[in-house]
Amino acid sequence: MKKIIFISVAIFTFAFTCKAQDKPEAEKYGNTLNLGIGIGYYGHVGHPVPLGTLNYEFDVARNFTLAPFVGMYAYQNYYYWGNPDKPNGDPSYRLYSYREIAIPVGVKGTYYFDQLFRANSKWDFYAAGSVGFVFRSVTWENGYYGDKRIYQTANPLHIQAHVGAEYHMTKKAGLFLDLSTGVSTFGLAIHF
After folding, report:
1. Is 98 exposed, middle or buried (0-12, 13-18, 19+ CB in 10 A)?
2. Average pLDDT for residues 141-163, to the nearest whole number?
3. Whether 100 contacts 151, CB under 8 Å
4. For residue 48, is pLDDT > 80?
5. How confident is the prediction for the chain on average, in pLDDT?
6. Please, which contacts does 43-46 make with residues 24 or more away whose CB atoms are closer than 8 Å?
7. Global confidence as pTM
């Protein structure tokens, strides 16, 4: 996490030290496909896991976009089950595995601060919020007959706050870094 914070501070510092150029008054941020990978914690796992995200931004108002999104992560974990007082006398007492797949789906609202910051035309800076639901599937190993709801207590509501930046390599492609309260991603933005 320290590396991510350091990198984001370096990017913001570099962008502000670049010669500021006025952007066109009616710059459009929408019609952008964002593909990201990163690490995150949705409250379901207990630790960060690798994940992928996809969203498509639409212009809604000046400097504001909405983007339907979908993400996905999967992980495997283990859980002891059986009678621990008789580890040798209870053949069911052992470590059982389970696999979870989670798919967050929702919408992300983004406000761009480029004009306020007088940012270089190669950079976009934003703050955003996202809301949605996390659909989960948990599969337990055969032979496990314990409480299968033990890891299904996390809230399915997905709410996050974001800050981020995008560097435009060309008119059609850019690289972004999105830091949030649950998921941090780095990825490719494709502008149409």
Report:
1. middle
2. 77
3. yes
4. yes
5. 81
6. 43/154, 43/155, 43/182, 44/100, 44/102, 44/134, 44/136, 44/151, 44/154, 45/75, 45/77, 45/100
7. 0.77
